[in-house]
Amino acid sequence: MRVLLVDDEEELVSALAERLRIRGIDADWACICYDAIRRVESKRYDIAVLDVKMPKMSGIELKRRLEEKRPGMKYIFMTGHGSEEDFRAGSAEAGTAYYLVKPVKIEDLIEKINEILND
Amino acid sequence: MSCGCDMIGETGLRFYGKMTASMSHEIKNALAIINENAGLLEDFTLMADRGMPIDPGRLKTLAEKVIKQVQRADGIVKTMNRFAHSIDESVKNVELDEVLDFVATLSGRLAFVRGVTLEVESGAIPVTIATRSFFLENLVWLCLDFAMDATGGGKTVGLRAEQTENGARLKLTQLQGLSERTTSAFPGEREIALLDALRAELAINERAAEIVLMLPRDIGQ
Predict the structure, then answer these.
(1) Which of residues 60 through 119 in chain A touch B, CB cutoff 8 A?
(2) Burial class (CB in 10 A: 0-12, 13-18, 19+), A91
């Protein structure tokens, strides 16, 4: 399983990626949306976990850009905001079940990843 | 949101909601980082239980990251507290550099997400006026919100306070994209209501790429 984590909080995605790797998951991370796009161009990921609010490009817009590069890739949105507006936007893109509010338990994240990939 | 409240009250509530939502978002990020680093510590101890040695340097780095995020969250909570207390007194003496610094801090995350840098240019002489501080913070935010879309390629908003004969002048500068923005909607009814309440005036100077707020020295009670 190959996972790409994208969030402008470097200390968050780097630690989360390390924890996923400890659990045997191939996880990479990016803090800038354009880096995420470059990564997806050069490597095939099964799923991307995207922060909703990031500088210059929202997670929703990034998802659309990544979909153009890799149709069929799956997504989870992760946010600290949790506003109704964000929830509606994230849910519309990824489905209510795939919209997680920070801080997220790693077991819950892995469960969601497995659910989506087995769907 | 429309509740039949007066314009200033509704605008103030919107401002308060916007800022506290942004700050709570930042606290959530700090908590999420603490959560992952604490999780890593737990992972390392579980691995140590299975006989894998732990690098003390890694543990030290993780502890430092946790401490840094606790300090970050503490700073945000202090800002939230100060923001809440800015409604305590209706009129009080405020130092304008401090007001600009404070609104820039409040708006920091919102500016970051929009890719805009805020530069508060402190003057040599402090400029103090007696005004309604919460209303002033609200008005500066509304101007900043507009200004952040009018930065052009520079993506920077300068904020500066200057003393004038009758009071003070606040400037939002480096707005090279001002002429491209339609200004018919700005100042809108919210800004006008706050300008009236503060006995202030607003001018848009496209040539100088500035928005200027003129404020009286003492608003009175």
Answers:
(1) 79-83, 101-104, 106
(2) middle
